[in-house]
Design a protein that fits this description.
single chain, 7 helices, 55% helix
Length: 295
Amino acid sequence: MKSHGYVLRTLAVLLAAGAPAVILLVHPDPPSAANKLDWPRLAAWASCLLGMFALFVLAGLKIRGRVLGVLIDERNRYSLSRLQMTLWTLLVLATLYTVYIANIVRGDATTALIVDLDYNLIALMGFNLASFVGAPMALSRKAEQPASDNALATTSQQLLDTQKLTAPPSARGQVLTKNDPKDARLADLIRGEDVTNATLVDLPRLQMLLITMVVVFVYGAAVGHSLGSGDWLLETLPKLHNTLLLLALISHSGYVVGKLIPSNLTPNPAPVQPGQPVNAAAPQGQAPQPGVNSL
């Protein structure tokens, strides 16, 4: 099995790094005037994307035992911030590598690496990194706040029944944690992370997922059009408009702020000791109500 994994990883690396260079070296001439589609560069880009995706899949299978294992976080849930990092890493790195190789083959090495990367795209990738780093920090606050045992039991049973989990989820404070990577579900991307809302759709997460998919798809389509019908030597990548950048910023802000706000604002009642009057459990400074005796 180890030898099979080594062979698969080698093939994935060759597909991501070697195949694009071979495709462009075999077809170095520009397309004819009648055929403006630059299919060698498009094919090289698709090969690089496929090879890098295969490497991510193999890494997930090796570490987590799941095809999308790279998206599973330490709570054994599919992570939205990990999904964003993965999508933009695949798209941007595959695009840059293809453009660099194409420029080297078709031009000269001195100017091949002079490619203008849009500052809005750099800012967007910075937002992704900030969410990836800031999300666990935001959840650490909730992990220090105790959760209701009744709420945990109810939520665990619901998830156990609806998602066919191998074991009931547990909790670190108010943060729900699954016990096995096999229990990760794609529904984790849009459901809450707290004990009290893990069975509900979290609107900030849903908004962020939809905006992410739209922006990635639109920018990927722009990159594909530029590679297929752009200049023979590319010196600039498609620009990311300010509107898309602001949409992404709003979704990231709602995503991180949503992690900071506790879903259960009602504190747990203090336990009453046996033989202690009920009024004795009231907060200090509050007068006991008349006519109420201990049971």
